[in-house]
Design brief:
Length: 193
């Protein structure tokens, strides 16, 4: 005797989740353990806000620019490089993917700016990696580690605040590392070295 065939009810759509969707769901589940807790919410919301428009990176570059005229020129070159990166990411690359941002049902614990651009790749993540590569020129090893550590925190803050999927952040990191390497080779902040 063969068992009767069962069918999904007609009112429930069949959903085939891709590997990317499953990855995003797993990482989002990890962050659910931190969401709604302090100081995690306060710190990660602050980092995501400081990452807006590359603010934290431009501030670091211009603080370093106070050391000498050469460092000041490097800070201006850095700001121009970040502006070019932003145009490329937000004006060209994101328009090719048009991925929707995560849907948030519950209220956010802290105020934040909600971006108007699409989700893939994460601009905060890309900018953080470009900044890490460019600002690490003429930096000590501990400073390089701190720059990339801060960049990583800014990147993952975007998952925590539910502005990006985890795969958006991974994509942003990859694009940022590539753009940073190209920028450092073609237009280094310091001309000698």
């Amino acid at each position: 005797m063969t068992p009767p065939e069962t069918e999904a009810p007609l009112d429930q759509p069949v959903v085939n989740h891709s590997a990317v969707d499953r990855f995003d769901a797993v990482v989002d589940g990890w962050f659910d353990r931190l969401r709604g807790t302090e100081p995690a919410d306060r710190v990660l919301y602050a980092l995501t806000e400081l990452g807006d428009f590359g603010l934290i990176w431009v501030l670091l570059a211009f603080v370093r620019g106070l050391r000498s005229e050469e460092d000041e020129r490097a800070a201006w070159r850095f700001a121009a490089a970040l502006a070019a990166e932003s145009v490329l990411i937000n004006g060209i690359i994101k328009t090719q993917f048009k991925r929707e941002r995560p849907v948030v049902q519950e209220p956010r614990p802290h105020k934040m700016r909600i971006p108007l651009t699409t989700s893939f790749p994460s601009g905060h993540s890309s900018t953080a990696m470009v900044a890490g590569i460019l600002l690490s020129q003429r930096s000590s090893k501990p400073t390089k580690v701190a720059l990339f550590g801060l960049g990583g925190l800014v990147a993952v803050s975007r998952i925590h605040v539910r502005i990006h999927h985890a795969s958006d952040v991974v994509g942003g990191v990859a694009v940022g590392l590539t753009l940073g390497a190209v920028a450092r080779k073609l237009w280094p902040l310091y001309r000698n070295r």
